[in-house]
């Protein structure tokens, strides 16, 4: 099998529904372009005479827009850059740090990745958007949901500092879960 013989780039992209692996094959002699998302072929083009350009596709349950740019960098060398929602991967991930919180927790021997989208207050766990119940409390808000029969709560409290804004804390079984860095 000639699978992955022309693999030129691999990226890991953390989205609300999980971390996705994007692989790109570029056959500079055959003109072949293949995009895989999480091991599944999304795009295949054979015999492309133009070796530079752009391939666009979507990633994950949220159908996030993605594009791979193929640029010549002299001679027969090429540079491959991934864009997510029209931003470079680096810019997208920097922005994501501001708009989401992510926690990794282990319950009953299983790992769970919980993501809060701060703009919508949507909560995701291992690729599924969860049902939540929000309530106002004395010092802020609480968003309640369940993971593996465990009651969970994201507390949102003002930091008291304008630059820091609101602090989100995940509490499971009366225990504060540290935020993960992806």
From TrEMBL:
<comment type="function">
    <text>Plays a role as an inducible effector molecule that mediates Fas resistance produced by surface Ig engagement in B cells.</text>
</comment>
<dbReference type="Pfam" id="PF06905">
    <property type="entry name" value="FAIM1"/>
</dbReference>
<dbReference type="InterPro" id="IPR038513">
    <property type="entry name" value="FAIM1_dom_sf"/>
</dbReference>
<keyword id="KW-0053">Apoptosis</keyword>
<dbReference type="GO" id="GO:0005737">
    <property type="term" value="C:cytoplasm"/>
</dbReference>
<dbReference type="InterPro" id="IPR010695">
    <property type="entry name" value="FAIM1"/>
</dbReference>
<protein>
    <recommendedName>
        <fullName>Fas apoptotic inhibitory molecule 1</fullName>
    </recommendedName>
</protein>
<keyword id="KW-0963">Cytoplasm</keyword>
<dbReference type="GO" id="GO:0006915">
    <property type="term" value="P:apoptotic process"/>
</dbReference>
<dbReference type="GO" id="GO:1902042">
    <property type="term" value="P:negative regulation of extrinsic apoptotic signaling pathway via death domain receptors"/>
</dbReference>
<comment type="similarity">
    <text>Belongs to the FAIM1 family.</text>
</comment>
